[in-house]
Amino acid sequence: MKKIICHLDMDAFFASVEEQKRPHLVGKPIAVGSPIIEGVGRGVVSTANYKARGYGIHSAMPIMTAWRLSEEARKQGKDEVVFLPVDFALYNKVSAHVLEIIKKYAALVEQASVDEFYYDLSSAGSFAKAKAICKKIKAEIKAVEKVTCSVGIGPNKLIAKIAAGIKKPDGLLVVEGKQSREFLNPLDIRELPGIGPKTAEIFYKQGINKVGDLLAFSREQLKDLMGKHGESIFQKARGIDDSPITEFHEVKSIGGQTTLNENTKNPIVVYDIFKKLSDGVFASFSNGGFSGFKGIAVTVRFADFQTQSSSKSFKEPLGVRDPSTSLRTGRKIFELEALRLLLPYLDLQKNPKSKPIRLVGIRIEKIVP
């Protein structure tokens, strides 16, 4: 039986979900990420919708750079970008719904991230039938969640992932096994997963611009040039990928962190931000359907970029869904212990020089499936 692997990638996921949450924003440029107020903010953009990308805004961009691009666009008479904070609890909820839809059509599904999924449709028997199934999946996601996705279909995870990215947004592309080389060769080397800007620059200087250019290099030559990473690049350039679809991914921790708009020594300001962050992290935990957790960790970064962490472990799991130790009880203990871990950084105990705080983070650890 030939392998038929699919990769489903949600389109500008965070921003698309926000549009459904706030219908009046549909059609406007949106950037989701760290808070920014009147042009002042720190941190980065998590997701930008396609209209905002037209302004040059993209994920991982410093939030203030995105703001400046928005201002430039506004001065040119274009729509001003709407900046929104992340809402992980909401995104995880929609992601769970998408996963359930995919599972109706595919027996083996791997959730690679909150907005990416791999699934095996080898049982369909042909790429044509797999394409028809993927069209149904796309249509149901759009009808139920009002968001779009792009799907790549190929003989392995590598080809499927690249195919999905090529056809964004709301696309569907099939690359059969015999077409893999023809598909890969003309692509820029940046399209290969694992080749980022720095690695690409090394290749560009060697006159290697397209994936097909890599075929002239032996395994040993690529290893000499890129070290251990050279073996992976050698395989990917030839469309080789034997990695399996792993249905169950054990989640060991859930967390988040927030960069404050400005460094502060004010404990009330720090706590208010920390509380909102904690609520979102616990909501993600509770929506995940886990049995409990046995650890909490808090991270604080000071204005001088020194980072410190503290953690607390429990002998018995908290947050389990039974009458004796309810989810509500687990949440109360979580809030109390998280505060106990944070407080020493707000006084002289763990901050003897009273340094301003730049970032706070919290994680639920040792999660029990």
TrEMBL record:
Classification via InterPro entries: DNA/RNA_pol_sf, DNA_pol_Y-fam_lit_finger_sf, DNA_pol_Y-fam_little_finger, DNA_polymerase-Y, DNApol_IV, IMS_HHH_1, Rev_trsase/Diguanyl_cyclase, UmuC
Annotated site location: Substrate discrimination: F14
Any one GO biological process: DNA repair
Gene encoding the protein: dinB
Domain UmuC: 5-196
Catalytic activities: DNA(n) + a 2'-deoxyribonucleoside 5'-triphosphate = DNA(n+1) + diphosphate
Main enzyme class: transferase
One Pfam family of this chain: IMS_C
EC number(s) given by UniProt: 2.7.7.7
Top-rank taxon, per record: Bacteria
A GO cellular component annotation in the UniProt record: cytoplasm
Keywords, ordered alphabetically: Cytoplasm, DNA damage, DNA repair, DNA replication, DNA-binding, DNA-directed DNA polymerase, Magnesium, Metal-binding, Mutator protein, Nucleotidyltransferase, Transferase
Signal sequence region: none
Active site residues of this protein: E116
Description of how the protein assembles with itself and partners: Monomer.
GO molecular-function terms, A-Z: damaged DNA binding; DNA-directed DNA polymerase activity; magnesium ion binding
Organism of derivation: Candidatus Staskawiczbacteria bacterium RIFCSPHIGHO2_01_FULL_41_41
Cofactors that this protein relies on: Mg(2+)
Subcellular location: Cytoplasm
CDD domains in UniProt: PolY_Pol_IV_kappa
Cofactor note: Binds 2 magnesium ions per subunit.
Protein name: DNA polymerase IV
Described purpose of this protein according to its UniProt entry: Poorly processive, error-prone DNA polymerase involved in untargeted mutagenesis. Copies undamaged DNA at stalled replication forks, which arise in vivo from mismatched or misaligned primer ends. These misaligned primers can be extended by PolIV. Exhibits no 3'-5' exonuclease (proofreading) activity. May be involved in translesional synthesis, in conjunction with the beta clamp from PolIII.
Binding site for Mg(2+): D9, D115
